[in-house]
Amino acid sequence: MHNDILAHLDNPQYLEQLYRADKPAFRKAFDSLYPQIENNLLAKAWHERLSYNPDGLSWGTPRDRVVVLLASVVAALLAKLPAILSLAPGYYYPRNIGFIAFPLLIGYFAWKQTVPRQTGIVLAVLMGLAAVYINWLPQAPTSDTLILACLHLPLWLWSLLGFTFTGGRLRRDANWLGFLRYNGELVVMTAVLLLACGLATAITINLFNLIGWNIIGFYSNYVVICSLAALPIVATYLTQVQPALVGKVSPVIARLFSPFALVMLLIYLVAMTASGKNLYHDRAFLLLFNGLLVGVMALIFFSVAGTGSVHQNRVQLLILFLLSIVTILINGIALSAILFRIAEWGITPNRAAVLGSNVLILCHLLLVGFRLWQVTTRRSDLSPISRSMAYFLPVYSAWAVVVVFVFPLLFGFK
Protein backbone atom coordinates (compact mmCIF):
# COMPACT_ATOMS: atom_id res chain seq x y z
CA MET A 1 0.00 0.00 0.00
CA HIS A 2 2.86 2.43 0.81
CA ASN A 3 4.47 1.91 -2.60
CA ASP A 4 1.15 2.24 -4.41
CA ILE A 5 0.43 5.58 -2.75
CA LEU A 6 3.90 6.95 -3.53
CA ALA A 7 3.84 5.72 -7.12
CA HIS A 8 0.41 7.22 -7.87
CA LEU A 9 0.53 10.35 -5.75
CA ASP A 10 -0.44 12.50 -8.74
CA ASN A 11 -3.28 10.19 -9.83
CA PRO A 12 -6.42 11.14 -7.82
CA GLN A 13 -8.58 8.46 -9.44
CA TYR A 14 -6.21 5.63 -8.55
CA LEU A 15 -5.82 6.90 -4.98
CA GLU A 16 -9.60 6.96 -4.65
CA GLN A 17 -9.77 3.35 -5.84
CA LEU A 18 -7.11 2.35 -3.31
CA TYR A 19 -9.01 4.12 -0.55
CA ARG A 20 -12.34 2.49 -1.36
CA ALA A 21 -10.76 -0.97 -1.70
CA ASP A 22 -9.35 -0.94 1.83
CA LYS A 23 -10.04 2.23 3.84
CA PRO A 24 -8.30 1.19 7.13
CA ALA A 25 -5.12 0.06 5.37
CA PHE A 26 -5.06 3.17 3.17
CA ARG A 27 -5.50 5.48 6.17
CA LYS A 28 -2.74 3.76 8.10
CA ALA A 29 -0.31 3.79 5.16
CA PHE A 30 -1.08 7.41 4.30
CA ASP A 31 -0.60 8.59 7.89
CA SER A 32 2.83 6.98 8.05
CA LEU A 33 3.83 8.50 4.70
CA TYR A 34 2.41 11.98 5.19
CA PRO A 35 5.52 13.53 6.84
CA GLN A 36 7.44 12.69 3.64
CA ILE A 37 4.85 14.05 1.20
CA GLU A 38 3.24 16.90 3.12
CA ASN A 39 4.42 19.47 0.53
CA ASN A 40 2.36 17.76 -2.19
CA LEU A 41 -0.93 19.59 -2.81
CA LEU A 42 -2.94 16.40 -3.38
CA ALA A 43 -1.43 14.86 -0.23
CA LYS A 44 -2.56 17.91 1.75
CA ALA A 45 -6.09 17.48 0.42
CA TRP A 46 -6.09 13.79 1.37
CA HIS A 47 -4.74 14.66 4.82
CA GLU A 48 -7.61 17.07 5.40
CA ARG A 49 -10.10 14.50 4.14
CA LEU A 50 -8.82 11.71 6.36
CA SER A 51 -8.45 14.00 9.38
CA TYR A 52 -11.96 15.41 9.12
CA ASN A 53 -14.10 14.39 12.07
CA PRO A 54 -17.65 15.77 11.79
CA ASP A 55 -19.58 16.64 14.90
CA GLY A 56 -22.54 14.38 15.57
CA LEU A 57 -24.06 11.71 13.38
CA SER A 58 -24.63 12.24 9.68
CA TRP A 59 -28.03 11.28 8.30
CA GLY A 60 -27.32 11.99 4.65
CA THR A 61 -29.10 14.49 2.44
CA PRO A 62 -32.87 15.07 2.51
CA ARG A 63 -33.06 13.52 -0.96
CA ASP A 64 -31.32 10.37 0.29
CA ARG A 65 -33.75 10.07 3.19
CA VAL A 66 -36.76 10.45 0.90
CA VAL A 67 -35.45 7.73 -1.43
CA VAL A 68 -34.83 5.36 1.50
CA LEU A 69 -38.29 6.09 2.93
CA LEU A 70 -39.98 5.37 -0.42
CA ALA A 71 -37.94 2.19 -0.89
CA SER A 72 -38.93 1.03 2.61
CA VAL A 73 -42.61 1.63 1.84
CA VAL A 74 -42.32 -0.34 -1.42
CA ALA A 75 -40.59 -3.21 0.43
CA ALA A 76 -43.38 -3.24 3.02
CA LEU A 77 -46.02 -3.36 0.27
CA LEU A 78 -44.21 -6.22 -1.45
CA ALA A 79 -44.08 -8.11 1.86
CA LYS A 80 -47.83 -7.62 2.32
CA LEU A 81 -48.70 -8.48 -1.28
CA PRO A 82 -50.29 -11.86 -0.36
CA ALA A 83 -52.74 -10.06 1.94
CA ILE A 84 -53.40 -7.30 -0.62
CA LEU A 85 -53.98 -9.63 -3.60
CA SER A 86 -55.28 -12.67 -1.66
CA LEU A 87 -52.30 -14.81 -2.65
CA ALA A 88 -51.30 -18.01 -0.86
CA PRO A 89 -48.40 -17.14 1.51
CA GLY A 90 -46.98 -20.65 1.09
CA TYR A 91 -46.71 -20.05 -2.65
CA TYR A 92 -45.63 -16.40 -2.63
CA TYR A 93 -42.93 -16.12 0.03
CA PRO A 94 -40.65 -19.07 -0.87
CA ARG A 95 -40.51 -17.94 -4.50
CA ASN A 96 -40.41 -14.17 -4.03
CA ILE A 97 -38.65 -13.53 -0.72
CA GLY A 98 -35.55 -12.33 -2.57
CA PHE A 99 -37.56 -9.83 -4.62
CA ILE A 100 -38.75 -7.93 -1.55
CA ALA A 101 -35.42 -6.23 -0.80
CA PHE A 102 -32.80 -7.06 -3.45
CA PRO A 103 -34.31 -5.13 -6.40
CA LEU A 104 -34.68 -2.07 -4.18
CA LEU A 105 -31.11 -2.34 -2.92
CA ILE A 106 -29.89 -2.82 -6.50
CA GLY A 107 -31.83 0.28 -7.52
CA TYR A 108 -30.39 2.25 -4.59
CA PHE A 109 -26.77 1.42 -5.45
CA ALA A 110 -27.42 1.92 -9.17
CA TRP A 111 -28.53 5.44 -8.27
CA LYS A 112 -25.65 6.11 -5.85
CA GLN A 113 -22.98 4.64 -8.17
CA THR A 114 -24.44 6.31 -11.28
CA VAL A 115 -24.69 3.00 -13.12
CA PRO A 116 -25.16 3.53 -16.90
CA ARG A 117 -28.79 3.56 -17.98
CA GLN A 118 -28.31 0.63 -20.38
CA THR A 119 -26.87 -1.46 -17.55
CA GLY A 120 -29.79 -0.52 -15.31
CA ILE A 121 -32.25 -1.62 -17.98
CA VAL A 122 -30.45 -4.95 -18.41
CA LEU A 123 -30.53 -5.53 -14.63
CA ALA A 124 -34.25 -4.71 -14.48
CA VAL A 125 -34.99 -7.08 -17.37
CA LEU A 126 -32.95 -9.89 -15.78
CA MET A 127 -34.77 -9.51 -12.47
CA GLY A 128 -38.14 -9.33 -14.22
CA LEU A 129 -37.45 -12.50 -16.20
CA ALA A 130 -36.24 -14.25 -13.03
CA ALA A 131 -39.44 -13.25 -11.20
CA VAL A 132 -41.59 -14.59 -14.04
CA TYR A 133 -39.56 -17.79 -14.24
CA ILE A 134 -39.59 -18.65 -10.52
CA ASN A 135 -43.35 -18.08 -10.34
CA TRP A 136 -43.86 -20.14 -13.51
CA LEU A 137 -42.24 -23.26 -12.05
CA PRO A 138 -44.86 -25.94 -11.29
CA GLN A 139 -46.04 -26.12 -7.70
CA ALA A 140 -45.28 -29.52 -6.17
CA PRO A 141 -44.79 -30.17 -2.46
CA THR A 142 -42.10 -32.78 -3.17
CA SER A 143 -40.23 -30.90 -5.92
CA ASP A 144 -36.58 -30.71 -4.90
CA THR A 145 -35.68 -28.58 -7.93
CA LEU A 146 -38.27 -25.97 -6.92
CA ILE A 147 -36.88 -25.82 -3.38
CA LEU A 148 -33.32 -25.56 -4.69
CA ALA A 149 -34.30 -22.81 -7.12
CA CYS A 150 -36.00 -20.84 -4.34
CA LEU A 151 -32.92 -21.22 -2.11
CA HIS A 152 -30.38 -20.24 -4.78
CA LEU A 153 -32.30 -17.40 -6.41
CA PRO A 154 -31.49 -14.94 -3.56
CA LEU A 155 -27.81 -15.86 -3.99
CA TRP A 156 -28.00 -14.90 -7.66
CA LEU A 157 -29.80 -11.65 -6.81
CA TRP A 158 -27.07 -11.01 -4.24
CA SER A 159 -24.46 -11.31 -7.00
CA LEU A 160 -26.38 -8.76 -9.09
CA LEU A 161 -26.31 -6.49 -6.05
CA GLY A 162 -22.54 -6.91 -5.89
CA PHE A 163 -22.22 -6.09 -9.59
CA THR A 164 -24.24 -2.91 -9.05
CA PHE A 165 -22.35 -1.99 -5.87
CA THR A 166 -19.06 -2.09 -7.81
CA GLY A 167 -20.34 0.34 -10.43
CA GLY A 168 -22.12 -1.94 -12.89
CA ARG A 169 -19.03 -2.55 -15.00
CA LEU A 170 -16.99 -5.71 -15.54
CA ARG A 171 -13.52 -4.52 -14.54
CA ARG A 172 -10.53 -6.17 -12.94
CA ASP A 173 -10.32 -3.33 -10.40
CA ALA A 174 -13.99 -3.65 -9.39
CA ASN A 175 -14.45 -3.05 -5.67
CA TRP A 176 -15.57 -6.57 -4.73
CA LEU A 177 -13.68 -6.27 -1.44
CA GLY A 178 -15.74 -3.23 -0.57
CA PHE A 179 -18.89 -5.19 -1.37
CA LEU A 180 -17.88 -7.98 1.00
CA ARG A 181 -17.14 -5.45 3.73
CA TYR A 182 -20.54 -3.89 3.13
CA ASN A 183 -22.13 -7.31 3.74
CA GLY A 184 -20.32 -7.65 7.07
CA GLU A 185 -21.38 -4.16 8.11
CA LEU A 186 -24.93 -4.89 6.94
CA VAL A 187 -25.13 -8.01 9.13
CA VAL A 188 -23.90 -6.08 12.17
CA MET A 189 -26.23 -3.13 11.61
CA THR A 190 -29.20 -5.42 10.93
CA ALA A 191 -28.54 -7.30 14.18
CA VAL A 192 -28.43 -4.01 16.11
CA LEU A 193 -31.69 -2.81 14.54
CA LEU A 194 -33.33 -6.18 15.24
CA LEU A 195 -32.42 -5.89 18.91
CA ALA A 196 -33.82 -2.36 19.04
CA CYS A 197 -37.02 -3.40 17.22
CA GLY A 198 -37.43 -6.43 19.50
CA LEU A 199 -37.16 -4.23 22.58
CA ALA A 200 -39.64 -1.71 21.14
CA THR A 201 -42.05 -4.54 20.27
CA ALA A 202 -41.95 -6.01 23.77
CA ILE A 203 -42.54 -2.61 25.38
CA THR A 204 -45.37 -1.68 23.00
CA ILE A 205 -47.28 -4.96 23.35
CA ASN A 206 -47.00 -4.95 27.13
CA LEU A 207 -48.07 -1.32 27.42
CA PHE A 208 -51.26 -2.05 25.47
CA ASN A 209 -51.82 -5.20 27.54
CA LEU A 210 -51.92 -2.99 30.63
CA ILE A 211 -55.05 -1.26 29.30
CA GLY A 212 -56.62 -4.52 28.14
CA TRP A 213 -55.82 -4.28 24.44
CA ASN A 214 -54.39 -7.39 22.78
CA ILE A 215 -52.55 -6.08 19.72
CA ILE A 216 -50.25 -9.06 19.12
CA GLY A 217 -52.07 -10.22 15.99
CA PHE A 218 -52.26 -6.79 14.37
CA TYR A 219 -48.73 -5.86 15.40
CA SER A 220 -47.25 -9.10 14.05
CA ASN A 221 -49.16 -9.01 10.76
CA TYR A 222 -48.41 -5.41 9.91
CA VAL A 223 -45.75 -3.68 11.99
CA VAL A 224 -43.38 -6.64 12.33
CA ILE A 225 -43.65 -7.85 8.72
CA CYS A 226 -43.31 -4.35 7.26
CA SER A 227 -40.38 -3.55 9.55
CA LEU A 228 -38.55 -6.75 8.61
CA ALA A 229 -39.04 -5.97 4.91
CA ALA A 230 -37.63 -2.44 5.32
CA LEU A 231 -34.80 -3.47 7.65
CA PRO A 232 -32.15 -4.32 4.98
CA ILE A 233 -32.78 -1.00 3.23
CA VAL A 234 -32.53 1.08 6.41
CA ALA A 235 -29.47 -0.86 7.57
CA THR A 236 -27.82 -0.37 4.17
CA TYR A 237 -28.47 3.36 4.32
CA LEU A 238 -26.94 3.61 7.80
CA THR A 239 -23.81 1.74 6.72
CA GLN A 240 -23.37 4.19 3.84
CA VAL A 241 -23.95 7.45 5.72
CA GLN A 242 -22.08 6.24 8.82
CA PRO A 243 -19.25 4.02 7.50
CA ALA A 244 -17.23 4.37 10.71
CA LEU A 245 -20.17 3.28 12.88
CA VAL A 246 -19.84 -0.48 12.33
CA GLY A 247 -16.86 -0.69 9.97
CA LYS A 248 -14.57 -2.19 12.60
CA VAL A 249 -17.12 -4.36 14.39
CA SER A 250 -17.31 -7.30 11.98
CA PRO A 251 -13.48 -7.72 11.76
CA VAL A 252 -13.22 -7.60 15.56
CA ILE A 253 -15.96 -10.21 15.99
CA ALA A 254 -14.36 -12.43 13.35
CA ARG A 255 -10.93 -12.18 14.96
CA LEU A 256 -12.35 -13.00 18.39
CA PHE A 257 -14.23 -16.06 17.13
CA SER A 258 -11.50 -17.43 14.84
CA PRO A 259 -9.51 -19.10 17.69
CA PHE A 260 -12.74 -20.45 19.17
CA ALA A 261 -13.79 -21.88 15.80
CA LEU A 262 -10.38 -23.51 15.35
CA VAL A 263 -10.45 -25.19 18.78
CA MET A 264 -14.10 -26.24 18.38
CA LEU A 265 -13.47 -27.83 14.98
CA LEU A 266 -10.40 -29.71 16.21
CA ILE A 267 -12.33 -31.06 19.19
CA TYR A 268 -15.24 -31.98 16.91
CA LEU A 269 -12.99 -33.89 14.51
CA VAL A 270 -11.61 -35.93 17.41
CA ALA A 271 -15.09 -36.49 18.87
CA MET A 272 -16.48 -37.47 15.47
CA THR A 273 -13.74 -40.07 15.05
CA ALA A 274 -14.18 -41.43 18.58
CA SER A 275 -17.98 -41.65 18.36
CA GLY A 276 -17.89 -44.26 15.60
CA LYS A 277 -21.12 -42.92 14.15
CA ASN A 278 -21.70 -43.52 10.45
CA LEU A 279 -22.09 -39.98 9.17
CA TYR A 280 -22.45 -41.06 5.55
CA HIS A 281 -26.12 -41.88 6.09
CA ASP A 282 -26.99 -38.66 7.93
CA ARG A 283 -28.41 -35.85 5.76
CA ALA A 284 -28.42 -33.41 8.68
CA PHE A 285 -24.66 -33.89 8.91
CA LEU A 286 -24.19 -32.70 5.34
CA LEU A 287 -26.47 -29.69 5.78
CA LEU A 288 -24.71 -28.67 8.99
CA PHE A 289 -21.28 -29.00 7.41
CA ASN A 290 -22.23 -26.84 4.43
CA GLY A 291 -23.42 -24.09 6.74
CA LEU A 292 -20.23 -24.48 8.75
CA LEU A 293 -18.08 -24.08 5.63
CA VAL A 294 -19.79 -20.83 4.67
CA GLY A 295 -19.39 -19.52 8.23
CA VAL A 296 -15.66 -20.30 8.26
CA MET A 297 -15.16 -18.52 4.95
CA ALA A 298 -16.84 -15.44 6.44
CA LEU A 299 -14.63 -15.64 9.56
CA ILE A 300 -11.47 -15.83 7.45
CA PHE A 301 -12.40 -12.91 5.24
CA PHE A 302 -13.49 -10.51 7.95
CA SER A 303 -10.47 -11.40 10.06
CA VAL A 304 -8.21 -10.56 7.11
CA ALA A 305 -10.17 -7.35 6.51
CA GLY A 306 -9.35 -6.19 10.03
CA THR A 307 -5.68 -7.22 9.95
CA GLY A 308 -3.26 -4.36 9.58
CA SER A 309 0.07 -5.95 8.62
CA VAL A 310 1.61 -9.39 8.44
CA HIS A 311 4.34 -8.59 10.96
CA GLN A 312 1.93 -7.34 13.62
CA ASN A 313 -0.65 -10.11 13.12
CA ARG A 314 1.41 -13.20 12.38
CA VAL A 315 -0.34 -15.21 15.12
CA GLN A 316 -3.76 -14.26 13.74
CA LEU A 317 -2.75 -15.25 10.21
CA LEU A 318 -1.39 -18.55 11.49
CA ILE A 319 -4.72 -19.22 13.23
CA LEU A 320 -6.55 -18.47 9.97
CA PHE A 321 -4.23 -20.77 8.04
CA LEU A 322 -4.81 -23.62 10.51
CA LEU A 323 -8.54 -22.89 10.42
CA SER A 324 -8.54 -23.19 6.63
CA ILE A 325 -6.64 -26.51 6.83
CA VAL A 326 -9.07 -27.98 9.36
CA THR A 327 -12.03 -26.76 7.30
CA ILE A 328 -10.55 -28.36 4.18
CA LEU A 329 -10.39 -31.68 6.07
CA ILE A 330 -14.04 -31.32 7.11
CA ASN A 331 -14.98 -30.41 3.55
CA GLY A 332 -13.19 -33.55 2.35
CA ILE A 333 -15.22 -35.66 4.78
CA ALA A 334 -18.46 -34.06 3.63
CA LEU A 335 -17.49 -34.47 -0.01
CA SER A 336 -16.72 -38.15 0.48
CA ALA A 337 -20.11 -38.60 2.17
CA ILE A 338 -21.87 -36.97 -0.78
CA LEU A 339 -20.01 -39.15 -3.28
CA PHE A 340 -20.87 -42.23 -1.20
CA ARG A 341 -24.57 -41.35 -1.22
CA ILE A 342 -24.49 -40.78 -4.98
CA ALA A 343 -22.73 -44.11 -5.56
CA GLU A 344 -25.21 -45.95 -3.32
CA TRP A 345 -28.51 -44.33 -4.26
CA GLY A 346 -27.85 -42.43 -7.48
CA ILE A 347 -27.87 -38.79 -8.43
CA THR A 348 -30.70 -36.50 -7.32
CA PRO A 349 -31.15 -32.72 -7.58
CA ASN A 350 -30.25 -32.26 -3.91
CA ARG A 351 -27.11 -34.40 -4.12
CA ALA A 352 -26.00 -32.69 -7.32
CA ALA A 353 -26.49 -29.24 -5.76
CA VAL A 354 -24.63 -30.15 -2.57
CA LEU A 355 -21.84 -31.82 -4.56
CA GLY A 356 -21.34 -28.75 -6.74
CA SER A 357 -21.40 -26.39 -3.75
CA ASN A 358 -18.87 -28.48 -1.83
CA VAL A 359 -16.51 -28.71 -4.78
CA LEU A 360 -16.61 -24.92 -5.23
CA ILE A 361 -16.08 -24.28 -1.52
CA LEU A 362 -13.21 -26.78 -1.43
CA CYS A 363 -11.49 -25.08 -4.37
CA HIS A 364 -12.00 -21.69 -2.75
CA LEU A 365 -10.63 -22.90 0.59
CA LEU A 366 -7.59 -24.43 -1.10
CA LEU A 367 -6.88 -21.12 -2.85
CA VAL A 368 -7.35 -19.08 0.31
CA GLY A 369 -5.26 -21.50 2.38
CA PHE A 370 -2.46 -21.36 -0.21
CA ARG A 371 -2.54 -17.53 -0.15
CA LEU A 372 -2.48 -17.51 3.66
CA TRP A 373 0.57 -19.76 3.61
CA GLN A 374 2.29 -17.53 1.03
CA VAL A 375 1.63 -14.35 2.99
CA THR A 376 2.68 -15.91 6.31
CA THR A 377 5.96 -17.33 5.01
CA ARG A 378 6.97 -14.53 2.64
CA ARG A 379 5.76 -11.64 4.81
CA SER A 380 4.17 -9.89 1.85
CA ASP A 381 1.07 -7.71 2.11
CA LEU A 382 -2.42 -9.12 2.55
CA SER A 383 -3.76 -8.23 -0.90
CA PRO A 384 -3.37 -11.78 -2.37
CA ILE A 385 -5.66 -13.16 0.36
CA SER A 386 -8.25 -10.44 -0.15
CA ARG A 387 -8.22 -10.92 -3.92
CA SER A 388 -8.60 -14.68 -3.58
CA MET A 389 -11.64 -14.11 -1.34
CA ALA A 390 -13.29 -11.65 -3.72
CA TYR A 391 -12.52 -12.96 -7.20
CA PHE A 392 -14.29 -16.27 -6.55
CA LEU A 393 -17.68 -14.59 -6.12
CA PRO A 394 -18.63 -14.70 -9.86
CA VAL A 395 -18.07 -18.47 -9.74
CA TYR A 396 -20.67 -18.83 -6.98
CA SER A 397 -23.01 -16.62 -9.00
CA ALA A 398 -22.61 -18.86 -12.07
CA TRP A 399 -23.37 -21.93 -9.96
CA ALA A 400 -26.50 -20.28 -8.58
CA VAL A 401 -27.64 -19.61 -12.15
CA VAL A 402 -27.18 -23.29 -13.00
CA VAL A 403 -29.18 -24.47 -9.98
CA VAL A 404 -31.99 -21.95 -10.48
CA PHE A 405 -32.46 -22.04 -14.24
CA VAL A 406 -30.97 -25.37 -15.40
CA PHE A 407 -31.72 -27.88 -12.64
CA PRO A 408 -35.54 -27.75 -12.92
CA LEU A 409 -35.34 -28.44 -16.67
CA LEU A 410 -32.50 -30.95 -16.36
CA PHE A 411 -34.29 -33.04 -13.71
CA GLY A 412 -37.78 -32.65 -15.13
CA PHE A 413 -39.06 -30.41 -12.27
CA LYS A 414 -38.65 -33.33 -9.83
Pick out its properties.
414 residues, 19 helices, 0% strand, 3 domains, globular, mainly alpha
Tally of strands: 0
Question: How far apart lie the N and C ends?
Answer: 52 Å
Kindly state the percentage of residues in helix.
over 70%
Give me the Rg, rounded.
24 Å
Walk me through the topology:
Blueprint (H helix, E strand, L loop, with lengths): L1 H6 L4 H10 L1 H15 L3 H11 L10 H18 L1 H5 L3 H8 L1 H15 L4 H20 L7 H22 L10 H35 L5 H26 L1 H4 L2 H27 L7 H23 L8 H32 L3 H30 L4 H8 L2 H18 L4
Outline the structure in words.
There is one protein chain. This protein has 414 residues and is mainly α. The protein folds into three domains: 2-51, no CATH class; 61-247, no CATH class; 248-381, no CATH class. The chain is 80% helix and 0% strand. The protein contains 19 helices and no strands. α16 (314-345) runs antiparallel to α17 (349-378). The radius of gyration is 24 Å and the shape is globular.
Quick structural overview:
The chain crosses the membrane at residues 66-85, 92-111, 117-134, 146-166, 186-210, 222-240, 252-272, 284-305, 317-340, 352-373, 393-413. By secondary structure, the chain is mainly alpha-helical.
